[in-house]
Amino acid sequence: MASIGKAIPVGSPSVRDDVLPARPARLPEWQLPPVPTVDKSNSDMASVEYSAYRTELSHHRTGLSDHRTDLSEYRTDLSMHRTDLSTERTEMSMRRTGMSFQRTRLSAERTLMSVIRTSLSLIGFGFTIYQVFAKLVDVPGVKLGSEAPRNFGVSLVALGIAMLVLGIVYHVNYMKELRAERSAMTGDGLIHGESRYPLSFTLLTALALLVLGLLAIVSMVFGIAPFG
Length: 228
Known about the structure:
Elements: H1 43-137, H2 148-187, H3 201-222
């Protein structure tokens, strides 16, 4: 009978789609022998001829049974091959999901950077307006209320600080939820979660800008150092 191909071991480190077990060869077409015509008057000879006919049919059935066994083993090998492929695809899916968490974290970092840029523009522009208007008060012929430059500049700086605070709070809460979701999926075995989230330098920059903004607005309101 045709021999079955070598089975691919389960859990093999690398399984390619084009590495398949060999399929058993097809059986050649076999015509059933005709029923022998016997001399009914000679019972012994008729019994011998019928016995030989049954033996030939039995050999054919045995060959068919062996071929079905080979096909069954072939299907088993294919099933093991598909299992290996499924295991590799599951591993790749787990790693893609883990990388998606990193991409989501980087997206949150970029969002916070956008908030930082907007807040920095508002704080810097507000402080600049305050300084320009404050100098114009001392220019002869220019009549401005003493509170006008401070109020306008303080409003812009306060708006920048408020936006920065909201951005920081949103970022911290979002990262907490993201870390919790990642830990839950790691605990369930859905992702590996081997790499840790690094320290967010964007968040540190936002906190430093917040401190500078608070110092700026205190300096503008009370006229004290370091920017007074």
